[in-house]
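TEACHING EXERCISE
Course module: macromolecular assemblies
Task: Read the component lines below, then compare them to the predicted structure of the full complex.
Student: A.B.
Group: 4
Components provided:
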Amino acid sequence: MTAPLLQLKGLSKRFGGLVAVNDLSFDVHAGEVVGLLGPNGSGKTTAMNLVSGALPLNVGEVRFDGRTISGLASHQIARLGVARTFQLVRVLGGMSCRDNVAAGLAFRPGGLHGSAAGRAAQQLLERVGLGAQAELPASELTYIDQKRLELARALALAPKLLLLDEWLAGLNPTELQQGIALIAALQGEGMTVLMVEHVMDAVHALCSRCVVMNSGSRIADGPTREVLSDARVIEAYLGSDDDIQEAAHA
Amino acid sequence: MSRRDCLAWGAGALALAGLATVPRWMHNDYYLSLLISVLMYSVLASAWALFSGPTRYVSLATVAFFGVGAYTTAVFGESLPWAAVLLIALGVGVAMALVVGLATLRLSGVYFVIFSFGLAELTKQLVTWWEVNITKDLGRYVFVDITAQDIYWQLLVLLALVLGLRAWIARTRLGLALRVIGEDETVAVHVGINTTRVKVLLFTLSAAFMTVAGAIMAPRWTYLDPTIAFAPAISFQTLIMALLGGAGTLFGPLLGAVPLVLLFEFLSANFPNHFAILVGLVFMVIVYAVPQGISGWLRRRKHHGGGK
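Instructor-supplied answer key:
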C-alpha cells in the first residue's frame, strides 16, 4: 500500500482553556473521498483549518504528499496542492465570477494569467454550472451559486487534495443531486477529497470512509456503513439510551 | 497590447507633453505655484492609491515619508548634486517603508490606520528630538539651486511614473493579488498569494514616491522645521483627495486632487482664520455625499444612462 496523501498525526489545538481538537490522527489516501463527521462543535472545521494552515496547531504534525506541511503558511500549503472551500462561503464580492476563478488560477505553480486564464476560468465556471454568469459580480450570485463559484476557485488551483467544509449544506434536493454528481465526477478523475458534511445522503453517496469526531477527539474511523452504525457514533449524535429514556420521562 | 490601450497610452503621452510646456508660456508665479501644489497632491494621492486603493488599507503615514524626503533635501541639498539628493531620499524612503511594512502589515483595519498615524507622529518627534539635542537648532534653511519650473517638471515626471506604474500593475498578476487582498485576505492566502510580500512591496513603492515628492518639494519652503515638514494635514488631505476621486481607479486620485487643491487654495486665501473648520466641513460633506468617490459616481451615472 502506498503512503497516504494526507496524514494527521496527533493534532491538538487549544483556544485558551477550550481544547477544540484533541490528539486527532487519521490518514487520507490518494483518490479517496473521506467524510469528516461529528456533532456541531466537535472540532471538524478546526481540523480543516489546521490542515490548510488557517490556524497554527499546538501539538502534532500534518504530512501531505511526502512532506510536513504543519508550520507552513497557508499560501505555501495552497501552492503545494491543497485547496479548500469555507463553511461560511467566501467569494470576492466586488470582482466578477471570472476574476474570482482567475484568482485561483494565477498564483499556483505554473499559474495562468491573461487570455489563457480567461479561457481556463470560463471552462471551470461551465463545469460548476456558472458559464453564463462569468461577467457578473460575485456578490450578485445567490448563496448556492456562490458556493459553486467557491468550488470553481478551489478547482482552479489544480489541487491534489480538496477540502470541502459543508459545501453541500443548504442545497435543495435538486441542487444536492447536482452537487453530489459534481463531486462524484471529481472523484472519477482521481481527486482526493476530505469533506466535512452533515447531509447524510451525500455522505452515503460519496464517502467510502468516514472519520467521526466528538469533543475534539476521533471516536470512529472506517467504512461509512460500519462507522454510522457504531454505537459510540450514534451516542455522540443522539445521546446514550439513558439520556433518551430520561428525555422521555421528562 | 490592444488598439485601445495604444490610444490610451498615446493620449497620456500627449497630455504629458502638453503639460510640460506650461511653464514655457505661463510666467505668472502665482499660477505656477498653484500648479505645483496640484501636481504635488496628484502625486501623493496617486501614490497613496497605489497601495491603499486595491488593498483598502487606509494609511495616514503619507507625511512620514513626505517629511523624511523634505529633510533629506534640507540636510544634503547644499553639499550634494540634486540627483544624488533624490537618490538618497529614494533609498531612505524605501528602507523606512520596508522596516515599517514588515513590522506592521500584519495589522489590519482600524489598527493599521492608527498605527500609520502614530508612525507619522513618531517620525516627527524623532526628527524634533534629533534637531533639539544633536544639531541644537530646530529649524533649517533649504538652499538649493532649483527653480519653480524645475520643481514643476520633476513633479510632472513623478506623476507620469506613478500613473504608469499603477496602469502596468493593474494588468499584472500583482494587480490581481492586490484586488484579492482588498476583497478578502483569508481567500488570498488560500489561493496561494504571499500576502505579506505583496503588501510590503506595494507599501514600499508607494512610500518611495511620497519620499521623493517631499525631497522635490522642500526647496519651495526655504525654511523647514518638523511642524512644517510633518504636518498631519498633508496625510489627511492626501487621503481625502484619493477618496473623493476614487482610489480604485487610475485617474480617480487626480479627480480628487485637482478640485480640492483649488478649493483649499480658495479657502485659505479668503478665510485664513477659519480654514481648518472649513476643511473639516469639506471632509464631512465628501464622506457623506460621495462615499464611492467621483469615479464611482460617474460610473453609476453611466450605468443608469445605459439602462435607459
